[in-house]
Amino acid sequence: MAQGRGSAAGVLALVLLCVLLHGELAESAVYTVGDRGGWSFRSFTTGGWPRGKRFRAGDVLVFKYSPSAHNVVAVNAAGYNSCSAPRGARVFKSGNDRVTLARGTNYFICSFPGHCQSGMKIAITAA
């Protein structure tokens, strides 16, 4: 009988773990970068888009833009500060890219010549 109770407790623990994991995923938010303006100069020259938003690891950023005019490159802090994409950086160019935030600061730039230098870059810190 004790073995049966142990098995039931194990199954209950597994079900509880699945519910908690599902709840964590269900809490992820989806943000369209730049809101209606999308990933564009207009949205980022003021630098205000992320202001007032609370980002968490697992949240999704959606970058909407014209792929003939822009791209999105996930960079490190040095790439963000220097407006350069390090070797092996992940480049997005579909015009409707979805990026899941990692814990910490996530950096993105547009690598089209002059775009990042003109302010088309964003740093998002996810708790």
Automatic annotation (TrEMBL):
<keyword id="KW-0732">Signal</keyword>
<dbReference type="InterPro" id="IPR003245">
    <property type="entry name" value="Phytocyanin_dom"/>
</dbReference>
<keyword id="KW-1015">Disulfide bond</keyword>
<dbReference type="InterPro" id="IPR039391">
    <property type="entry name" value="Phytocyanin-like"/>
</dbReference>
<dbReference type="GO" id="GO:0046872">
    <property type="term" value="F:metal ion binding"/>
</dbReference>
<dbReference type="InterPro" id="IPR008972">
    <property type="entry name" value="Cupredoxin"/>
</dbReference>
<dbReference type="Pfam" id="PF02298">
    <property type="entry name" value="Cu_bind_like"/>
</dbReference>
<feature type="domain" description="Phytocyanin">
    <location>
        <begin position="29"/>
        <end position="127"/>
    </location>
</feature>
<keyword id="KW-0479">Metal-binding</keyword>
<feature type="signal peptide">
    <location>
        <begin position="1"/>
        <end position="26"/>
    </location>
</feature>
<dbReference type="InterPro" id="IPR028871">
    <property type="entry name" value="BlueCu_1_BS"/>
</dbReference>
<dbReference type="InterPro" id="IPR041844">
    <property type="entry name" value="Plantacyanin"/>
</dbReference>
<dbReference type="GO" id="GO:0005886">
    <property type="term" value="C:plasma membrane"/>
</dbReference>
<dbReference type="GO" id="GO:0009055">
    <property type="term" value="F:electron transfer activity"/>
</dbReference>
<keyword id="KW-0186">Copper</keyword>
<protein>
    <recommendedName>
        <fullName>Plantacyanin</fullName>
    </recommendedName>
</protein>
